[in-house]
Design goal:
120 residues; mainly beta; 7-stranded mixed sheet
Length: 120
Amino acid sequence: QVQLVESGGGLVQPGGSLRLSCAASGFTFSSYAMNWYRQAPGKERELVAGITPSGGTTTYADFVKGRFTISRDNAKKTVYLQMNSLKPDDTAVYYCNVHWASSGWLYVYWGQGTQVTVSS
């Protein structure tokens, strides 16, 4: 079965950095785009960044452009999110996501999430 396991979250001071990882299994990792979402308390889950199967194209939400970098290692079946210049507003649970359509159905998978807290 599909599994996504995030790691790397924690407490960091404003201006600091963290690198999140998401280890994937149960599907052909190199064939699918991967995404990072986040959800802050009392807010809806929002897309942070996405990366194509080859890693050749990345997209970012405006609120992280220039600060976050998404990347992937298809040999390790892992997607990363490098987060720099962190702000208190970046505090959230960060989720790894993959989805695809098959036979008219949309399959959406999430990891368990990793907490990122930006505070002095």
